[in-house]
Amino acid sequence: MSAPVTEGGEPQVPIRVLLVDDALDVRRLVRTALRFRGGFEVSGEASTGTEAVELATTLQPDVVVLDLGLPDLAGRDVLARVREAAPATKVVVFSGADPDDRSWYEEQAAGYVLKNENLDYLVDLLVSVVRPLRAMAVADLPQELGSVREARSLVRRTLADWDLSHLEDEAILVVSELAANALNHAQSSYQVRVYHNPSTVRIEVHDGGDGTPEPQPTSDTREGGRGLLLVSAMSVSWGLEQTDDGKVVWAELAHGLGSTA
Q: Residue 45: CA atoms inside 13 Å, Cβ hemisphere, count?
């Protein structure tokens, strides 16, 4: 298998991965998926939280694939210690559990993937968190209520161009909620970006506001606060990234086609 290359034709440096899971079979499956995709180097493997922190400190990998059900340390503790030991390293949670506090992990990690998801999605996510994707469709939108309609139109046209209109209902809901969040809570103009991965469509909204969006529990009396719960339910993964000038809130939808347009 030939090595991936950059646009200039130079070989691309492999993405260095630390696999953390107490199940050898799971680590073997992920390792095999990375080898078949190409462009990755498994720098180390750990079966406990303590080993994970030690290896992250020594190896400083590009990304850690982290299971939460380790025998010695709680998931929160492992994630916090790995991030402290290797501040530049991205962490993607790969867990068999969907905890009540999943939103906390999605905020602290670069991604959260359940083990029942297709491994292709995990590999796509590892690439995207280490090497930012080039936006396939972008729109800068003003701090006006009517801009949400423009965001929906952008997503609708883009999906049609990619022959992915079967995702339209979910994608329109996602971009509407993320754009409304930028308007109502960040009180900011914003940028919508849409990306096409081999197995997912990623929708991002970049705004200039402070604060962290939080999913709110359902309530019979409160009308708002349910948007991120809907986004979480519709997407295979979502999260946020703080930037120098605000934040990016993103969500990914699985399209199941297995190849880019």
A: 14
